[in-house]
Amino acid sequence: MNNQQETRERGVKCDYLFMKKQNKVIDNLIETLKDGQEGFKQAAESVRNPALKALFSGYSDQRSRFATVLQSEARRQGETEPETTSSATGALHRGWINLKSAVTGGDEHAILAECERGEDSAVEEYKKALDDDLSPAARQLVSL
Fold it and tell me: Which one, out of 28, 33, 38, 134, has a CA that is 20 to 30 A from the CA of 86?
């Protein structure tokens, strides 16, 4: 094998590893968005205040749209099966919201506080993603 072929093979291998790592980062964000989508949906179902119901439903829909955009980017980058589900951690957090809602009788302040805690966690995931090596297109989507 000549030097040119070796260089080309190394470049292909580096591109593959970069894309694999990037797709993992994107899949983690999709999972985080799915967590938020489900969490806000559950919060909307747990409150009585119509304004909060609408707010939480809107956030749930927004997280769904964001996840769809990242799934499309993952496919564009060669991922054949981007993430489609939420995480076990997210399921536990939603269970905690359910329990807290039941114990507090649907206290809207407590539910709102749990939603805020979930969003703080999502912000941290986005910060971690931006610290990773992402393609310019993926970085632009993540930083929107």
Answer: 134
Question: What is the pLDDT, as a whole number, of residue 12?
Answer: 46
Distance of alpha carbon 56 from alpha carbon 52, whole angstroms: 6
Instruction: Flag residues of the chain having pLDDT under 50.
Output: 11-12
How crowded is residue 95: how many other Cβ atoms within 10 Å of its Cβ?
11
Q: CATH number of the domain that 30 lies in?
A: 1.20.1260.10
83: helix, coil or strand? Answer: coil
CB-based burial label for 107 (10 Å; 0-12, 13-18, 19+): middle
User: What range defines the domain where residue 79 resides?
Assistant: 3-143
Residue with tokens 């979930």: 118
